[in-house]
Design brief:
Beta-galactosidase, Chain A, domain 5; nine-stranded antiparallel sheet; disordered N terminus; 15 helices; single chain; alpha+beta; 2 domains
């Protein structure tokens, strides 16, 4: 009944939004040019756009993994970045076809996608419809108000991470189209404070503990701020404050190349979009010195950067994209990534594989992950105890950590110690598995595809842009295997270093068994 009432027409004749606002994120002009040529560059490769010679292009079935991108009209950013008349006419034509016959797919009416579509239509109105026919403007205005009513009837929603902000921003966009609908604004301002409180942890990290989610949440807040600016009024309390706390966190989760670290469903991201966002919301380039709630560790020494996930996985309701990567790390030198997690990918099968511990720089016990995932994507088994101790000694940075994710499945506790010297030239690791009995243990190190890997007996040479590194170990058996990296939109072949600890290497201790291995990544002078 609630949604049925929301669909009832109210007699409005539509038209241009009362308040005009331009989307703050810069798209990719190259992707926009491909769209004009009828092809969409997606994480699944090139997707052929629906034919536009009829009135039902949205009837054509698209791959499930790219439907959210299609239905949210996020691609309008790329067409606007291209900016020519062909791009404008394509955007207008696709919107016109949607208005005449939207897809019957229920996903098109999913709250997050509806909120994003509302915000994208509103944020690209001038580019797409500003010079369009009056009749099309009226149809678009009516559709935005109608979708706004549906969203208003749906909120409040269960926790969904940063996407909760996207849903609410759709309501704000609907209000800016027709401000005499005070209910849109009233519901937006009623639920925004609670949504920000559950999206952001006290230190500014998003509850998903994901760099990509951090970026998306900041885009939503910065957009809300810009939308209130377009209306000539102050934003609700908490918007500026959360931006101020969360922005240094996002910068702390970036490598020297300007891209994101690959933790918990993140890829490297779009560097242009990141730069645009920072330019808009930063007055000074601040880094978060400590993240006691987000539990990411950032260590800088010389030209080296070490990023570590030292926290428990996100809590229920925020864990649908979480990875089994507790105590995993990434390491880069200046603008070159060396050791990386494998990223994320839109295809469901790939996405699940990349959530596993095997796709991270960490230990595997019995070939299994430190988390199990339920069919609905949430975490079914997780580490409950994660310890972190940071200290300096003799100019060196020390991290001592442990997690119990393997206790329930294998009766094992994993301890990891990482040391980075003052110059950033030596990264040392010491891995300990304490268990009831010897286990099959592997430690995986994933090498970025831009780095050349050369195995030399019991050492591995990493040849990166502008630097050469040597990887060595004690206590295990070293091998190099093929790998796949999904941090840059498309899967790329790469290499991984694997340390194998045979069961017979374990030593008895009290009532259990201890297995250890140490490793060393060393910079070699050129």
């Amino acid at each position: 009944m609630k949604l049925a009432v929301a669909r009832m027409p109210r007699g409005w004749k539509g038209g241009a939004p009362h308040y005009i606002y331009q989307d703050i994120i810069t798209g990719d002009a190259e992707r926009g040019a491909r769209l004009v040529m009828g092809k969409a560059a997606t994480s699944l490769g090139l997707y052929k756009l629906p034919r536009l010679d009829g009135l039902q292009p949205w009837r054509e079935q698209a791959p499930e993994a790219i439907k959210p991108w299609l239905y949210s009209f996020e691609w309008l950013r790329d067409l606007r970045a291209l900016g020519n008349n062909d791009a404008r006419l394509l955007a207008r034509r696709l919107m016109e076809c949607w208005l005449k016959e939207p897809p019957a797919d229920p996903l098109a009416s999913e709250p997050t996608i509806m909120g994003q579509r509302l915000a994208n239509w509103h944020g690209h109105y001038e580019f797409c419809l500003g010079s369009g026919a009056r009749g099309l403007q009226v149809q678009a205005g009516e559709a935005m108000v109608r979708d706004g009513r549906m969203l208003a009837a749906m909120v409040p929603l269960p926790p969904r991470g940063w996407e909760g902000l996207a849903v609410l921003r759709g309501l704000l966009a609907a209000f800016m189209v027709r401000p005499d609908h005070q209910g849109f604004l009233a519901r937006f301002e009623r639920y925004l404070p609670a949504e920000m409180k559950r999206v952001f942890l006290p230190d500014g990290t998003v509850a998903e503990r994901s760099p990509e989610a951090q970026f998306s949440a900041l885009v939503e807040l910065a957009s809300i701020l810009a939308m209130y600016g377009a209306m000539g009024t102050y934003p609700p309390p908490g918007v500026r404050e959360n931006l101020a706390r969360a922005t240094p966190v996002l910068r702390s989760l970036c490598h020297g190349d300007g891209g994101l670290a690959c933790f918990n469903g993140s890829s490297e991201g779009n560097r242009n979009s990141l730069a645009t966002l920072f330019e808009r919301i930063e007055r000074t380039r601040l880094l978060a010195p400590n993240l006691p709630d987000g539990r990411f560790v950032r260590v800088v020494a010389g030209g080296a950067l070490l990023l570590v996930d030292a926290g428990v996985p996100p809590k229920h309701g925020f864990d649908r994209r979480a990875h089994a990567g507790t105590l995993s790390f990434e390491f880069s030198w200046q603008s070159q990534r060396l050791l990386v997690n494998c990223g994320s990918f839109a295809d469901p099968a790939w996405r699940e594989a990349l959530r596993a511990s095997a796709a991270h720089n960490m230990i595997l016990v019995g070939g299994e992950s430190s988390c199990d995932f339920a069919k609905n994507g949430t975490i079914a088994r997780r580490p409950h105890h994660v310890r972190l101790e940071k200290f300096m000694s003799g100019g060196e940075h020390h991290l001592e950590m442990e997690q119990d994710g393997y206790r329930a499945s294998h009766g094992a506790l994993w301890k990891r110690a990482l040391t980075l010297d003052e110059a950033g030239h030596n990264l040392r690791g010491f891995e300990i598995i304490e268990g009831e009995r010897p286990q099959n243990v592997e430690v995986r190190f994933h090498v970025h595809p831009d780095v050349r890997v050369i195995q030399e007996e019991e050492e591995v040479i990493l040849k990166a842009s502008g630097s050469i590194w040597r990887f060595s170990q004690q206590g295990g058996r070293l091998k190099v295997e093929g790998d796949v990296y999904c941090g840059r939109m498309q899967p790329e072949r790469s290499r991984q270093i694997v340390l194998v600890l045979p069961k017979e290497r374990g030593s008895a201790s009290g009532n259990g068994c201890i297995q250890t291995v140490s490793w060393h990544l060393e910079w070699l002078p050129g």
